[in-house]
Amino acid sequence: MNSEVNLEELTSRLKEDPYARFLGVEIEQIKKGYARCSLVVTEDMLNFVGLLHGGLVFSLADVAFSAASNSDHLPSYALDVSGSFLKTAQVGDRLVAEASLIHTTKRTGVYRMEVRRGDDLIALFNGTVFRKVSGE
Amino acid sequence: MNSEVNLEELTSRLKEDPYARFLGVEIEQIKKGYARCSLVVTEDMLNFVGLLHGGLVFSLADVAFSAASNSDHLPSYALDVSGSFLKTAQVGDRLVAEASLIHTTKRTGVYRMEVRRGDDLIALFNGTVFRKVSGE
Amino acid sequence: MNSEVNLEELTSRLKEDPYARFLGVEIEQIKKGYARCSLVVTEDMLNFVGLLHGGLVFSLADVAFSAASNSDHLPSYALDVSGSFLKTAQVGDRLVAEASLIHTTKRTGVYRMEVRRGDDLIALFNGTVFRKVSGE
Amino acid sequence: MNSEVNLEELTSRLKEDPYARFLGVEIEQIKKGYARCSLVVTEDMLNFVGLLHGGLVFSLADVAFSAASNSDHLPSYALDVSGSFLKTAQVGDRLVAEASLIHTTKRTGVYRMEVRRGDDLIALFNGTVFRKVSGE
Which residues of A touch B80 (CB under 8 A)? Predict the structure, then answer.
């Protein structure tokens, strides 16, 4: 693991992440092996049947995944993700995504992401990253 | 399977899908068990290290997944997804996502999604839907 | 949910599950929404490089998944699974798999499976089932 | 990629894979980036409701995954797997699993596994490996 990740600097950089900003994602907290972020559901985040779009839910989780995995080693790149959609949400609801380290090696890491609205679990995902080492 | 899905009407409705529109996704083709859609990468779709954001790549695939699965039965809701990120892309690149039916029962369906830039495979996902029946 | 699952009878039936017996899996506990089972690693469970075979690790988790999901509704059939392999184990080690309900509807359910050797997490999986209703 | 994998030697070693032998898996063919293996379903491979056990189906696919991924680089270790169960099979049926390389880098690789009985697709899985380099 790269012990030199500067979490303040990482947080600043993630607050400027273009796609996260585009979606209105707020980076709430980044600790080593953990990140929490949130957004408020807008009309733009629904699908054609009026439910929360799965792509949006995953995108929020993915921002947390990126923040948590890069807190452990910079840069960490997503290899694989998997997950389940459990509930929907309404316009105006605030969704919170948390990502937590489950297991790491020097070269890979596994994280769990949970998206909630209040106490309701909306979706859960697992993701695996590759830890890039300079010179590779 | 619900044989009464009107593909013309479904296509019209998907062209008004709020999240797909928000991302600039174009619905190119919907056939029974198949859909193709695309977008052009903008600055807003990058992450904080300047690469294509995984959430955006999945979102594009998810629009195709929704279109293909609802072509077989309306409504079909995503239960599970999984996949891998293989390559990145640049601002200005056009990404094409195709979703194809692998297997269906009356109540569930499995689809494969592939996201390409020209001949390059950028990401691949599998997804499973639940076929909702009225009255449930 | 089918409230009539008789957990004593289910436990008896799972103790006769042919594949679980073939692998030497012990069904330790089944409660509503939860199951725990275990096995002791033998030479037959290694792969050609001398590590624990991924197929065996998943098989143990799958026995727990089957027990937990059928405790909530009988019969429940696995639709999708996903997971990660974190550590290996040695001949003679005892592996314990636990499966826990994360979310259920009348027709589907999501479970998390964790395989441990003592406190070490060896592998984790998520799985989704379909709840079959008689007459379908 | 390690270009020095000796496919004849790998095939010999995989034919002695303890878990594959325990399950009665036959290694039919290994080429660079591809493997095919098979087994005949026995009573021991069923679950408590008389259907093919998911753990067995995955195990067969995992043997093919191991063979294909190690043909590209030795050793390659499974990080993540995901997949769907589509159909069951009967005692006496011959199941064939094929694993094919989808994408590789020097350090990781993605493979697709399909399990068939004749023309019927029984299950499909994706898997990602880490390519271990000596000295790590």
Answer: 82-85
